Structure formats: C-alpha cells, structure tokens
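Re: duplicated header lines in exported structure tokens

Our pipeline writes sequence and tokens for each protein into one text file. With two proteins the header for the second block appears twice in some exports. Here is an export where it did not happen, for reference. First protein block:
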Amino acid sequence: MIAAVVGPSGAGKDTLIEGALAAWPSLRLARRVITRPTEAGGEDFDGVTPDAFARMQRDGLFALDWQAHGLCYGIPRDQLTGDGPVIFNGSRAALPQAVARLPGLRVVLVTAPTALLARRLAARGRETEDDIAARLDRAGFALPPGIAHVTVVNDASPEQGIARLLAALQPDRVLR
C-alpha cells in the first residue's frame, strides 16, 4: 500500500504521520525533497537548491513532483519501492498525477477547522502573517473530482488524530 496524506497547511499532517510511523512499525515514510533549507524544520525532508531539484527532475528521479507555496516538492522513486506500506505527505493539487502514476494509491485528506489551522500555522513560526492568510485561503481547496479518499478531521488530541489516521490507513483492522 502507498498512501498520500494531503490537506491544508496546519492540519497536522506531519504530526499524524509521525505518530502513525511510531504506532505501525512496518509503515515507512517516503521523505520528500523540497527546495527549502533542511534546517527550516518541521517535517523530515531533504532540502535541495532549485538547481539540484531541476537536475533530479531531469534525471527522472521523482515518482511525483509538484510546486506549491513557491517551493518545489518531489517524492523520489526509490522511496516508494521495497517491502511494506509507505506513506507520504502529498499535495491536493498533485493528486491527479499521483493517482495516474501510483495505481492503488490510498488518499487520506487531513483537515481541521479554520481557526485551529490559523493557530497551528502561527505557532510553527515559519510563515509571515501574509503567508498564513494565503495558506488559510487555500485551506478550503477541494480535492480534484473523482479522487477517492478518506477524510480525517484532526481537531482533538494528537493521540485521537493518530488513531483516526491509522483507521483510515487500515480500514479492515479492528481497533481496540
């Protein structure tokens, strides 16, 4: 299984993914490559320059790539191979490409109320007020038509959000 976790900035995707990885030992993270300095913090990613990203793109190293918020993002092909289930933090806008390139892709939309998104974005301290406003404007961006998905509302404790994500990833598993 390959799963893409998508949703607005501040929904808690990285927190839920980190918790799911801790709770499900065979689940693997596909680390994103981003044209942002690695020391910018937040998620676990590989930061590269725009030139390095373009070279990786030309060399066909990405299974999936997209642009958002003035940055380039890519999921390396080699991160999706091997045994066991794989999860990655994706983009709603890139889902048509992802579904076409990754047959059987499981899509999980993580969301939260707008006021909570705003508080989380402000707390992480990476964006200006204008950046936060722009991200909140995009928070209601609908998934492209025809994309099958499960929605996880992350509006409670991290533990509850992680349990909801795990249930979405493993719908046949009985949670106790």
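Second protein block, exported in the same file:
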Amino acid sequence: MELHILLPFKIFLKISGVRRIVVATNAGSYGFLPQRLDCVAALVPGILMYETKEGNENYIAVDEGILTKRDKNVEISVRNAIAGANLGKLRDAVESQFVNLDEEEREVRKAVAKLESEFIQGIRKLHQS
C-alpha cells in the first residue's frame, strides 16, 4: 500500500510498500491490509502503526482526523502528528498535546458561542427599538 499522512500545512509522510496499518477510531482500533475494501474512517487522537514490506513497525502519534482507503492508497488527514520510536513518549504526547488542545478548543468555542449569542441579542434589541 501507499500511505500519505497530511497535515493542514504540509505532507507529514509519504511512503510506499506498506504491508499493514493500524489506527484508532471512536469505534476502536482498526487494521488495514492491501485487500481490504475501500472505506472512510474518523480517527481519534492515538497511536498509528504501520509496517513496511521489510517488516519494520513504525509508530506515529496522530490527532483527530480522517482516513480514506481507495485501492492500495491510504490517505490520512490529521491536525497534528508526531513521529518517534518510543511508544511511551508518543503516548504521553497524545495525552498532553492532543487531548489538552481539545479541552482548550472547547473553551474557545464556548466563548465564541457566548459572544455570538450576545451579538444577536443586541441586534434584536436594536430592531425592537
């Protein structure tokens, strides 16, 4: 298979000769082999594993995103990714960087929703006057 990992601002990884891929989704972990049917999967923050044709296993911490498999091409689009061989450090990176970002993002979204609500209420008051 050919694996592409895409970030919003660059191509993180482009590799061919991949035997299998394992990713984390909100429904659990899924493995992808070359013969698997074409599909789309929503990814959650976690560890992505891929094995090369030489038998080397590689690990990448990925943020939430989407995976598409078409024929022998697998494209993964995520907000952020960190490569490394040490699984312990990658797991810590997932927990500290990606999960905390989601909490901060929720707080920002709450603040924006509040501002939007106050703005709409202000416009309504102007129209009623």
